[in-house]
Amino acid sequence: MSTASDPFAPGFVERPYWWEEAPPAPAEAPLPDEVEVLVVGGGIAGLATALELGRNGVKALVIDREAIGWGASSRNGGALSGAGSLGKVRSDLVETFGATFVAELAAEGEQAFEDFEALVAREGLDCQYVRCGRFVGAHAPKAMEALQRRAEMINATGSEEAFLLPRERVHEEIATDRYHGGMLLLRAASIHPGKYVRSLAQAAARAGATLIGGVEYRGATRQADGAFAVETNRGRLRARHLMMATNGYTGSAAPWHLRRLIPVASYMIASEPIGEERVRAALPKLRVYGDTKKILYYFRPSPDYTRILFGGRASFVDNDARRASVRLHRFMVDLIPDLAGVRITHGWFGNVAFAFDMMPHVGVHDGIHYAMGCNGSGVVAMTHFGRVAAQQIMGGGNSVSAFTRLTFPTRPFYTGNPWFMPLVGTAYQLRDRLDGWRVKDVG
Length: 443
Fold this sequence. Notes:
alpha/beta, nine-stranded mixed sheet, FAD-binding oxidoreductase, oxidoreductase, FAD-dep_OxRdtase, oxidoreductase activity
């Protein structure tokens, strides 16, 4: 039996639950002197780039300073949607970008979801993919207006699979009285992210990519012929093309990209096994879930339906997984009181990266290709943008992504150090409280 102050099960570990079945595997090989394409970052975006290149006869080298797949790609919640992730934190998309352009973005997002399903089937990716649908809870009455706009944007693509549920029907989705209604998105799914990134790496390797972990990118110099002389902790190599796919782990060796990204730690916990019957009592439809708060929650059943996995922005101050796990446990029990007494076995975090315009970005700057800034919704987006980046590297594709027309903004004097995040976190907490959301005492 847990308490609010001690929710930990015996043997609690500060490690992703996903790594129990699919830990990041070491990838070792000699560093070549010259490559056609060097991809920096061994997560979803980098691996998807390498896979698409390989399928078209171009061999890529993927490097990562940690093991391949070590970052957020194997630490996230494993929730997928297409255009449903657009506007998650933006209520002014149409006003900012115009209705026609937003319609293009939304249609591309929906197609990216369909392409993801096709990729899983084509490559035989062992990732426990399930099209389960997604429910987004409205934390305040006025949040239903924003969800209505999102549903209209999604349905305008022709999918017609987004619906609003009134407050009296929330119990059909979650055993809680906290939400004032919500949006049900049928075109959404779940995966085991650890298994997905592992399978994606295996597919990229089958297509001819070389994957090497433990290689730190330390900068690149453009040469007269357009190629790059790249410095690493294991020596120098020459790359005809260079791709940055480092997202929330972008370092000072990529200053232009670093100035456009706000890294934020996102935390998760896994409950002890409580059995499918109890999981279904809490989450009757076994979907993936989120909400509309500034400091949002995201949660789901484990792939075997015996645990609850719960995540959120538990801290804007430090990266202490144990302290954050206590907070997340309190949030979980406050939201779903039937889970009182359930202990947790795993607690972890990973870095996501927000862009200043809260939109994902793919493109080229000074000859360096990039895909990053997925704003916490990166599984489908980064898989898609990896494919887009590969097509750009090869000189084009059947169609040009609408997202390549977005500028990648920064702010004056910002160098990549998000010193302001504690202030932002406090402001977000205040906004949620003004909207009427307060975490109850569950002690």
